[in-house]
Amino acid sequence: MSTSRKPLILAVLAIGIAVAAVGSLVAAIINDSRRTSDDCLAVDSTLVDLIVSRSPEGSVPHRAAAIEDPFARGRRSVSYDRYYIVVLELPAPGASSVVGTWGLGTNTERPEDDSPLSESGPVDGQAASLAAIDVNAEQWANWPNLDIPIADTDPMVEKARDCLGLP
Predict the structure, then answer these.
(1) Rounded to an integer, what distance in angstroms lies between the CA atom of residue 141 and that of residue 58?
(2) What is the pTM of this model?
(3) Beta bridge partner(s), residue 82
(4) What whole-number distance in Å separates Cα of residue 41 and Cα of residue 68?
(5) Tally of CB atoms within 10 A around 154
(6) Whole-angstrom Cα distance, residue 36 to residue 1?
(7) What domain range includes position 154?
(8) Is residue 23 part of a domain?
(9) Is 38 a residue whose pLDDT tops 50?
(10) Are 18 and 50 part of one and the same domain?
């Protein structure tokens, strides 16, 4: 092998190793950020009552679940300490049920193991904010989305809906 080809071969090997390392790092980050059913949180009845307090129908949801969205915090310049996606299975006329999705921004601590998600402070846009994320939530309870950086298309919304275990 000539001396002039040796640096080129070493450079190609170094680039290959760097690409493999970056690929492994990306795979590790993606796997770490995936949520499992173990990340699903129960929702305290006081939080459910707060959400439905703005419902014109006053109906009681069938089930509720939540998941923390660790990515939402970076999407807002003035952020809360934590953001949660709260899903409620709601009764619907002409259908067995629909799922409504709300976002909760809060400065309260994350619930301890097996404790339900709750909001003890006022939902006033300062200590916490609650907002309808999808059309079902908007139609069911009047919580306008003013400052929660979560959209219906956010991948974490689907993961929160999976917590309800609906087909």
Answers:
(1) 9
(2) 0.73
(3) 106
(4) 8
(5) 19
(6) 53
(7) 37-162
(8) yes
(9) yes
(10) no
